[in-house]
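Note to self: keep these together.
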Amino acid sequence: MAALNVTSVSSVAGIADLAATAVTASGGGDTAPCGPGYLLAVFNGGASPQTATVTTPGKKNGFALADATLTVAAGKSGLIALGNDFRGANDRATVTYSGVTSVTVAVIQLKGA
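Structure:
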């Protein structure tokens, strides 16, 4: 698993080319920082849909929470919020992918929002 780095985005300056900050998704999955203001961007440059799954390791009110999934169509991109419910080992979220061919990812932290 690779540890994804964060790209901070200011509410004043924004970011012109988010896809340029993305890295190749790891076949064994990735870890990412999580909490308020963190997002995972998934870019699918392949010919078929790909699904990113974010593990939900804990419970809420004694009940297990379902993992979050984001299915991104071929040639499209998507965002999923990385809230505190995904916080696992080392205070990071664990992300796996149905496939990684032509899939890139970026973690964004919104500043000043």
